[in-house]
Amino acid sequence: MSAMFEKVQAILAKQLRIADPAKIKPESLISKDLGADSLDILQLLMKIEDEYGIVIPDETLAKFQTVGDVVDFLEKHE
Questions:
Q1: CA dist list (Å): 69 to 19, 57, 66, 76
Q2: CB neighbours of 29 closer than 8 A, spacing ≥ 6?
Q3: Any idea where the domains of the chain sit in the sequence?
Q4: Among this protein's residues, is 37 annotated catalytic?
Q5: What is the pTM of this model?
Q6: Most buried in the list 22, 28, 35, 38, measured by CB within 10 Å?
Q7: Cα 5 to Cα 13, 50, 53, 74, distances in angstroms
Q8: Strand partners, 29
Q9: 3-76 belongs to which homologous superfamily?
Q10: Per-residue pLDDT at 65 exceeds 80
Q11: Do 48 and 74 touch, CB atoms closer than 8 A?
Q12: Which spans in 1-78 are helix H?
């Protein structure tokens, strides 16, 4: 697992109050599997944007389905 995945996993676990971060896998669906609602997703992306100094366009945001999608995007823009 990549360091980027581990960072995203930790952010998600904290934000969504998931006691065991190991339950968050790259293939986990952010909304369906992790129970994130649209506000959770928005807050997650704002935190990522702040932390990495990037802006995630709305059309890209709409394509994020899994944790792996977010990680792939961040690794390409690192």
A1: 22, 14, 5, 11
A2: 65, 66
A3: 3-76
A4: yes
A5: 0.87
A6: 28
A7: 12, 17, 17, 9
A8: 66
A9: ACP-like (1.10.1200.10)
A10: yes
A11: yes
A12: 3-15, 38-52, 58-61, 67-76
* Two structure tokens written together for 65: 């389905």
Helix (H, G, I), strand (E, B) or coil at 31: coil
Q: Which of 20, 33, 37, 72 is catalytic?
A: 37
**What are 49-59's pLDDT values in tens digits?**
998 899 988 88
The pLDDT of residue 50: 92
Residue 22 is classified by DSSP as: G
Comparing CA positions, the residue from 74, 71, 58 lying closest to residue 9 is: 71
